[in-house]
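User: Before I run my own analysis I want an independent prediction to cross-check against. Here's the chain; please return only the structure tokens and, at the end, one sentence I can use as a sanity check.
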Amino acid sequence: MQNILETPREALVEADVVALIQDSASLTVAGGLELLDMDLNVTKDLTDDLQGGTVTRSAFADLHGSLSIRLSTELEWGQAIVRPYMILSDPSVSARFNLGAYFTSTPKKTVGFYPGTFDVIGFDIIQALKDTVGEVYAVDAGTSYLVTIEAILLDRGFTKYIIDQTAAASVLPTAKVWALDENITWLTVVNDLIAAIGYQGIWSDWNGYLRVQQYISPAQRSAEWFYTADEHSAMLGNDRSIITDYYDAPNRWVAVRSNNVDEVAPEEGNGIFTFVNQSVGPTSVDARGGRSITRYLNLDVVDHAALVSTAQVSIDADLRLSTKYEVTTSPNPLHWHFDRMLVNDPDLGEFLEVMGTQWTLPLNGEDMSHEWSRVDLE
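Assistant: Structure tokens:
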């Protein structure tokens, strides 16, 4: 989730922001829109031209964020970048929440009256990495992963990004080549390099900055928000459902390092990583009466530690997707990328640990919809 005291909320205290979202009995909601340049500088405020819309985020999609808005002004479609925001207010506190940066597509124009309206779809600013590479691309052995990633971002026009330097010393053990293929994009290259050092896929934050960070399993992260059905601070709507799909969900994973440069064959603990979900949740080996369903992973990584971390991304995704919850809540513009929540709702399960995988937030203050996946703590 967004940092509660992120700019432009740094003048507030955390309790005021939480109370504003969760407890205010006289909440007002206003949506706004800014026009940005590629450096994320504000060039114009478009709020007076905004006639409503929604922001959607899907954490497992290639382009995590999308935007659907109606405008009464024309932009340079295809290259214009906009950033929606939401302002929540009550008589004592007001807080603004930025909601990401998006390239705008060529819209549908409604004519017949002045000035006319434009129904615009916006795509996550990561769209600039979705262009096809268009040639053979290679990185030499001994080259820094993070330096290569940063060079690609700069070459694609990005100047605002945050790169976790934990793996700064990691270099490619062998040369890496991406063949000429129409399906190879710069996003593919960046995410391949990121995965090789055990980081999570690149994503853009609420301000439009790109983020390159270490992967941390949801089970190891603390809850960032508490949803409860308690009448005094209830945000949960009436529309709540549980979806389960256990049939082919794996409970055993075998990851093998495909670029093993050692002269000895890979073995468990050195080039091979096996994880068995013996007893956690309904897809475990024990819950299935001893039935084991294996998924094999061939991974190009820098070392065995990265093999474990990168495999854990797939393992966690497989574990989470077997149980989903679809719910609605009152507006919470703090939500962002793979959020961790604690939910206390007798209809869903008391003190349920979940991770947000998708949400849609209307800019007019209507209830937002969510898709959560269950996090089984080991």
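Sanity check: The chain has a mean pLDDT of 91.
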